[in-house]
Amino acid sequence: MTIPMIPLDPGLYIVATPIGNLGDLSPRAADILSRADLLAVEDSRVTAGLLRHIGVKRPMQPYHDHNADQVRPALLARLATEAVALVSDAGTPLISDPGYKLVRDARAAGHMVVTIPGPCAAVAALTLAGLPTDRFLFMGFLPAKEKARADAVAEVATVRATLVLYESGPRLSACLSALATGLGDREAAVTREITKRFEEAVTGTLSALAARYENAPPKGEIVIVVAPPGDPAPASMEDADAALAEALTRLPASKAAGDVAKRLGLDRKALYARALEMKAAASD
Predict the structure, then answer these.
(1) Is pLDDT of 23 > 90?
(2) Distance of alpha carbon 109 from alpha carbon 80, whole angstroms
(3) Prediction pTM value
(4) I want to staple 88 with a disulfide (CB 3.0 to 4.6 A). Which of 55, 97, 175, 266 is the partner?
């Protein structure tokens, strides 16, 4: 006797799937995939392999960057009466994958939205890299064109956080070189094939890693993790005097001292005394 499957409540289910090792699919994720009325998938061939692993067949609708705007209205309409599971080819949907607009519109329409958390390559790479994890910035893929890539790196050069990026093997060395040029030669890690048989994490400076992969682009899914910037060198007296001179052209001495103290991390009282000396010297 076959026990009928209990249907899921209507709504959108965001389901994380393995990034390599199929054993990482959680029991809850497998249950949702087995009972959903429809799977919104990045590539039906990839998801079909995952469904074979758990021994089920479910209807699938491709949902990706190229068709999202056309497909989204029909998916939203189905959420009123059906359970739709959103999956990507690997990892957590919406992380460097389409989906946030579907979540936003589903919530705006009053539909239930549920997340089924699981693997994420960016977070897994952080655990392997041996770099600070208390604050990090995920950047996805950098632009392919040199100027746009350099501009993107420049935007985060002063961000005091570990950086996490995705990259492909053929572009890896150029990406690492761009990071070294724009950020300085920081410590970094190149992780690839996470959870798979040939998983590895190679650490070193950005320039050393760029040289390592220049003529030997690796295969597999790659995540780059870059250390945050080091502590800035303390400001010199020349820096303080120059900053005070500029600030005194627009502020009284007390406010000029406070402004420079905040920007350079120096003692406000000492700066105020110096500002008074500079004003007295200028009036002589």
Answers:
(1) yes
(2) 9
(3) 0.80
(4) 97
